[in-house]
Each structure stands twice: as C-alpha cells, then as structure tokens.
C-alpha cells in the first residue's frame, strides 16, 4: 500500500511527546489522514492515534498521558487500502521479545507477495499497511538483537522506506539503500536526538540539523549514544525527484539545498526553455509559487498575485475521496480580477497530473478578464505512476500518458502549454552534475525507468512500447 508520510523521533527529552507533536505539525503536508504518537518511559509504552489533522487528533490530556523521554510520531495518508484508524501509525505490536513500535514512509513493492506467504503460514493481519508485513518479518526472525532482526526482515523487502523503530530504550532510524524518501538527524541544545522526515520540523522545535541519513544507513540511538551502520549492499542512489518538485516544504533543506531555491531554479530554467510574450507571471499557489518567482526573475516579466488561496482548505490530492476534488478549485482558489483583467497571463504550476484542476484554473483566469492564458509546468510530462510511496493516479488517469502536449493544451483551453525538459530539470536540481553521468535521483514518473522492479511492471512496460 502506498504510504506517503511524515516521521518524527525524539530521544532523551522529558517532553518527548510534545516535541513529537510539534514536529508532526511541521510535517502535516506529508499526511493529513491520520496522526499518532507513541511514547516510552522506560517501563510502559503508550499510544495515541486518531484520524484527521494533528491539531484535531491530540488533546492536552492525551499529550500529558504520553509520558517518557522517548517518542515516535507519524502523520499519514494513503489511497489504496483502507483509510481507517486500524491503519493509523505508529504501529505497536507485542511479540516474543516484548513490544516494538514502527513508523513507515514509503512503499514496499513486494509486500503483497510476502503477506500472502505469511498468511499461508498462519499469520494474522489487522491492517493493510506495509508496516505490518515488516513487523511480522521482524517477529519471526531468528536473529538475536533487535537491530539484527530488522536487518534480516528488510533483506526480504524491496521498495522505498524510511523507517523509525522504537523498542525498549532504543530508537532505530533506517533509510532504504536507494534513499527514495528523506530522513534527517538533528540535535536539541540539551543533547537529545531528533529524527525527522524534513528539516522544517527541526526548525520548529529549534533543533540543529546534524545531517541527512545516507541511503542504506541505520542509526541506533540508545542510552550509550548513537551508532551508524550500513548493513545493506549498496545500491545506486535514487532520491525521489518529486520531493523537490512538489512534496517537501519549500523551507526544508534536501540534499544540502533549499527546496525553495531548487524550485525557483526549476522556474528559471522553465523560462529559458519556454518563454512567451506576456504581461504577467502568476503562480498556482502554493505549489507553483517558488517556480513562478524564478520564472518572473529570469524572463523579466512582472510577478503578481493573480490567484489567492483560501488557506484553510487542505491540498486537493491529499483528500482520499474523489468527490471532494471536483468541487475543489473554487473552494480553494479565487482569481484577483483587478490583477488579471485585460492582461496576457503566464501561469506556473509545479506539475500536471490529471489536468482537471488546471482546466478549472484556466477558465477562472479567463473569466476574470485575462486576454491570454499560457500555462507553464515546472516539471516534465508525468506519464508513469509511482510505486515508491507517492500517491499518483493510475497510468490511464495521468493525462500526459495518453495525450500529447497539444491535446492537453486544447483540453485545458489555454492559449499555450509547455513543460520543463528532463535535462532542464536535472540541471536545475543539480547544476554540478555531469549530464553524461547517470543521475542519482529517481525520475521514473517521467521516464518509466523504474529503479526497483515491481509486480506487473512487465505488463505496464509492454503497454508503454505499444504507444
Ligand atoms: P491537475 O490539474 O489535476 O493535474 O493537478 C495538478 C496539481 O496537483 C498541481 O498543482 C500539483 O501541485 C498537484 N500535485 C502533483 N502531484 C501530486 C500528487 N502526487 N499528489 C497530490 N497533488 C499533486
Ligand atoms: Fe518519486 Fe516519481 Fe520516483 Fe515515485 S516514480 S519515487 S514520485 S520520482
């Protein structure tokens, strides 16, 4: 099951659960369906989980109940599988070695296969989540230490994962060998350790960024200190390019670079490649804002606020139910007539998925009096679904997989449409990279070159070549 999530781990702080709560607040964009915190006080493990936003899930009383100086927090959304409290994480289970808690961000491509095998052997599952497969494998492992059991379990698993485990006095953080999803280590002034999905969560709790975990790295934090291991065979690095394009918060730092700065550079490169005569550059807020600023700077065309977002409405796609999306745009965005009336407008968004939102936006801008509307997308055409933890629709629903740029342009009724090239995107993300060398990012949703094979890939690939 796809699980796009945010993780927080706090080790050695008397207010661990409250810090985890704040960290989850900063990571709310990574999952709005459920939230949970587990705490450990040296004797007892406690859990609070619920459906909804972080602010809705936890009460003052619940946070007080989460005693202890170790805590693990998780925000989640998913599309496949159930959207119920059963699926909310972190997951806590008891097994022969005591309890273990786990929070997972990613997608295990062979989870169904392993699950079917375990069920055949008598295992009972309570949720559809990949994490349950992982804990079963850990519980069944014949290795002695908890860390070795984890490594043993993960050696059977293929896919994308950033994981946080809590077991007695030990907090263990792991990034898969390809490094699809981010995970960073921070430190508080009083020397407590912090592990979070993105650096914006460190900023909120005033922790210092120590470093990002390396792909394939396992950090074990306990009362003796912190130790790093590299227990897996090394693989080519494949950090998800969509984290840069859309998912991560612009105030986070990924791979040593500000996400906002990268998005601005994507916009600059887009301007170099697809400039058109116009009076105004506007963004689809908030996803296109950084790129639109870069586009305006590079093209010399004025930037203005042509669309205003109602900040109390969540991101469209994050809602698991389709019906909500159809009303979405008007609830979320409004056009500023004064800015747009009589103008030739370039509108920038970070990506085009189904094109349903963009179509409504283009209509809205025309209705506000714009004389021309040119849509520019700060990433290449998205033609292939993600199997590594980002919620993208099926291939058929991805408009660029079934339609040409001209057809999409006609569908969204814009005067012109242009995307950023793959080479331009790579250059904006890593200007120092040698274009002849293999890149260290995953580009599969644009290229169809999947770094890890998954069940059904052959069928999909043959469909790809039939086109
Ligand atoms: P649409 O016009 O329907 O193609 O939607 C495009 C919008 O969805 C863009 O503004 C993106 O910021 C946003 N978006 C892109 N990829 C995703 C995703 N995987 N999940 C949620 N939203 C996304
Ligand atoms: Fe990210 Fe796309 Fe690769 Fe999925 S397929 S991990 S969204 S780059």
Describe the structure.
The structure is a single chain. The protein is built from 18 helices and 23 strands. The chain is of the alpha+beta class and about 475 residues long. It folds into 2 domains: about 240 residues, Aminohydrolase, N-terminal nucleophile (Ntn) domain (Glutamine Phosphoribosylpyrophosphate, subunit 1, domain 1); about 180 residues, Rossmann fold (3-Layer(aba) Sandwich), CATH 3.40.50. It has a 7-stranded antiparallel beta sheet. A 6-stranded antiparallel beta sheet has the order 5-6-7-8-12-13, with helices on one face. Helix 5 crosses helix 6, helix 9 packs across helix 10 and helix 9 runs antiparallel to helix 16. The protein is globular.
CATH topology of the largest domain: Glutamine Phosphoribosylpyrophosphate, subunit 1, domain 1
Radius of gyration: 23 Å
CATH architectural group of the largest domain: 4-Layer Sandwich
How far from one another are the termini? 28 Å
Largest sheet: 7 strands, antiparallel
At the fourth level of CATH, the homologous superfamily of the largest domain is Aminohydrolase, N-terminal nucleophile (Ntn) domain
CATH class of the largest domain: Alpha Beta
Number of strands: 23
Structural class: alpha+beta
Q: In percent, how helical is the residue content?
A: 25-40%
Strand proportion: 25-35%
Shape: globular
